[in-house]
Amino acid sequence: MPLAPVLRSEWLKIRTLRPLYGALAAVFAATAAFSAVAGLDGGTDPDADPLYTSLSGVILGQIAAITFGATTVSSEYHGGAIRVSLAAVPRRGRWFAAKLTAIALPALVVGLVTALAALAVARFGPGSAADGLSVAEQARGVVGCGVYLMLMALFAAGLTALLRSSVATLSVMVPFILVVSFVIGDAAGGVTDFLPDRAGQVVLHRTYDGSTGPWTGLVVTALWTAAVVSAGAWRLCRRDA
After folding, report:
1. Listed residue (85, 74, 67, 64) closest to 12, CA to CA
2. Which residues of the chain have pLDDT under 50?
3. 10, 58, 69: which is closest to 229 by C-alpha?
4. What is the value of pTM for the model shown?
5. Cα–chain-centroid distance for residue 186?
6. Closest by alpha carbon to 157, among 61, 51, 228, 64?
7. Three-class secondary structure of residue 117 per DSSP
8. What is the per-residue pLDDT across 20-43, written as a single tens digit (0 to 9) for each?
């Protein structure tokens, strides 16, 4: 079966699963809301990074993006739906590619819209966090935010294919991002700049002095994502459904 009809069927699955709409809506709501709150405080702090302050809600919004990626894949393992999917598309690699594409596109679009909204609130709201940001800096923040959220959703999708459980994926990724990476990264520095979340979030900063820049940081995150997705694809192709 060609890729196009497989992709249409995977997109139809996403459209019919209401929890996935909720996860995407939560990406927007959490990021925009917490960015707005941070903007109110950041506007009074002369040392705050205005771009990161304006987009800081992505720290929580990414949890919803991770949930979206994990739930989209784990839904296949409920009630044996994966067997039906693979019976319709025996070439498992093609099916998995379509599944990942159906995750990546809405995650990217929602990420871009969310970043635009967060910057608009920061620039035109009661705070002044985004004052002084150039058009190029804002554009980098918006594109980088969208790409980062997409990569985190795909990372979660690959890990869920490997572990076959969204609960296991969330139990690994959420504590790691919110606690382990944050604590270890601030304490150790250096090599921790290459952790998938810390590297990717460099693009959200106006200034940066670590081991990676905005785009190289996203490349690092993309490499982590590719590795995890490859591991998930390997298990999908090698193990029984």
Report:
1. 85
2. none
3. 69
4. 0.91
5. 21
6. 228
7. helix
8. 888 999 999 998 888 877 766 655
